Protein backbone atom coordinates (compact mmCIF):
# COMPACT_ATOMS: atom_id res chain seq x y z
CA UNK A 1 0.00 0.00 0.00
CA UNK A 2 1.13 3.52 -0.71
CA UNK A 3 1.63 6.05 2.04
CA UNK A 4 -1.31 8.11 0.76
CA UNK A 5 -3.69 5.16 0.98
CA UNK A 6 -2.54 4.27 4.49
CA UNK A 7 -2.74 7.91 5.62
CA UNK A 8 -6.26 8.31 4.23
CA UNK A 9 -7.29 5.07 5.93
CA UNK A 10 -5.91 6.23 9.27
CA UNK A 11 -7.56 9.64 8.96
CA UNK A 12 -10.93 8.01 8.25
CA UNK A 13 -10.50 5.63 11.20
CA UNK A 14 -9.74 8.64 13.41
CA UNK A 15 -12.88 10.28 11.99
CA UNK A 16 -11.08 13.20 10.43
CA UNK A 17 -12.72 13.36 6.99
CA UNK A 18 -11.71 16.94 6.26
CA UNK A 19 -8.09 16.07 6.98
CA UNK A 20 -8.35 13.16 4.55
CA UNK A 21 -9.95 15.35 1.90
CA UNK A 22 -7.60 18.36 2.21
CA UNK A 23 -4.20 17.09 3.35
CA UNK A 24 -2.71 16.74 -0.16
CA UNK A 25 -3.76 20.23 -1.29
CA UNK A 26 -2.65 21.79 1.98
CA UNK A 27 0.68 19.93 1.83
CA UNK A 28 1.34 21.18 -1.71
CA UNK A 29 0.49 24.73 -0.65
CA UNK A 30 2.70 24.44 2.44
CA UNK A 31 5.62 23.15 0.36
CA UNK A 32 5.17 25.89 -2.23
CA UNK A 33 5.00 28.72 0.32
CA UNK A 34 7.49 27.25 2.78
CA UNK A 35 5.10 26.91 5.71
CA UNK A 36 6.26 25.09 8.81
CA UNK A 37 4.81 21.73 9.83
CA UNK A 38 2.99 23.39 12.69
CA UNK A 39 1.34 25.92 10.38
CA UNK A 40 0.34 23.12 7.98
CA UNK A 41 -1.20 21.15 10.85
CA UNK A 42 -2.94 24.29 12.14
CA UNK A 43 -4.49 24.91 8.72
CA UNK A 44 -5.77 21.34 8.58
CA UNK A 45 -7.22 21.61 12.10
CA UNK A 46 -8.94 24.91 11.26
CA UNK A 47 -10.51 23.35 8.16
CA UNK A 48 -11.67 20.30 10.15
CA UNK A 49 -13.22 22.46 12.89
CA UNK A 50 -14.96 24.73 10.37
CA UNK A 51 -16.44 21.71 8.57
CA UNK A 52 -17.60 20.14 11.83
CA UNK A 53 -19.22 23.41 12.89
CA UNK A 54 -21.03 23.69 9.55
CA UNK A 55 -22.19 20.07 9.85
CA UNK A 56 -23.42 20.70 13.40
CA UNK A 57 -25.45 23.72 12.33
CA UNK A 58 -27.03 21.78 9.45
CA UNK A 59 -27.78 18.83 11.74
CA UNK A 60 -29.39 21.08 14.38
CA UNK A 61 -31.55 22.82 11.79
CA UNK A 62 -32.67 19.47 10.39
CA UNK A 63 -33.43 18.11 13.87
CA UNK A 64 -35.40 21.23 14.80
CA UNK A 65 -37.95 20.40 12.09
CA UNK A 66 -38.75 24.06 11.64
CA UNK A 67 -41.76 24.83 9.47
CA UNK A 68 -41.04 25.87 5.94
CA UNK A 69 -41.71 29.54 5.36
CA UNK A 70 -44.39 30.09 2.78
CA UNK A 71 -44.99 33.52 1.38
CA UNK A 72 -47.65 34.73 -0.96
CA UNK A 73 -46.29 36.15 -4.15
CA UNK A 74 -46.54 39.92 -4.18
CA UNK A 75 -48.45 39.86 -7.48
CA UNK A 76 -51.54 38.07 -6.10
CA UNK A 77 -53.34 41.35 -5.41
CA UNK A 78 -55.19 39.97 -2.38
CA UNK A 79 -55.33 41.54 1.06
CA UNK A 80 -56.19 39.31 4.03
CA UNK A 81 -57.92 40.80 7.03
CA UNK A 82 -57.65 39.19 10.44
CA UNK A 83 -60.65 37.15 11.55
CA UNK A 84 -61.39 34.93 14.50
CA UNK A 85 -61.59 31.15 14.35
CA UNK A 86 -65.27 31.38 15.34
CA UNK A 87 -66.16 33.34 12.24
CA UNK A 88 -68.55 31.65 9.85
CA UNK A 89 -67.54 30.65 6.35
CA UNK A 90 -69.31 33.65 4.83
CA UNK A 91 -67.51 35.99 7.24
CA UNK A 92 -64.19 34.41 6.36
CA UNK A 93 -64.95 34.65 2.66
CA UNK A 94 -65.85 38.32 3.07
CA UNK A 95 -62.58 38.92 4.96
CA UNK A 96 -60.63 38.26 1.76
CA UNK A 97 -60.99 41.15 -0.61
CA UNK A 98 -59.07 41.95 -3.77
CA UNK A 99 -56.75 44.94 -3.71
CA UNK A 100 -57.85 47.90 -5.79
CA UNK A 101 -55.84 48.24 -8.94
CA UNK A 102 -53.49 51.22 -9.16
CA UNK A 103 -54.19 51.56 -12.87
CA UNK A 104 -57.99 51.55 -12.96
What can you see in these coordinates?
61% of the residues lie in helices and 6% in strands. The chain has a two-stranded antiparallel sheet with strand order 1-2. The protein is built from four helices and two strands, in the order αααβαβ. The chain has 104 residues and is mainly alpha-helical. It has helices spanning 3-13, 17-33, 37-64, 89-95; strands spanning 78-80, 96-98. It has a domain at 3-64. α1 packs across α2 (17-33) and α2 runs antiparallel to α3. The longest helix is centred in the middle third of the chain and has 28 residues, at 37-64.
Shape: elongated
- Going across the major beta sheet, what is the strand order? 1-2
Largest sheet: 2 strands, antiparallel
Strand content: 5-15%
C-alpha end-to-end distance: 79 Å
| Mean pLDDT metric | 78
Q: List SSEs in N-to-C order.
A: HHHEHE
Q: How many beta-strand elements?
A: 2
What share of residues is helical? Answer: 55-70%
List the helices and strands and how they pair.
Layout: H1 3-13, H2 17-33, H3 37-64, E1 78-80, H4 89-95, E2 96-98
Antiparallel strand pairs: 1-2
Amino acid sequence: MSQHTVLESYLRQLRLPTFAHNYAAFAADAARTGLSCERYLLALCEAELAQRDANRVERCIAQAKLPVLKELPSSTGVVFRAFSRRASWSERKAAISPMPSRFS
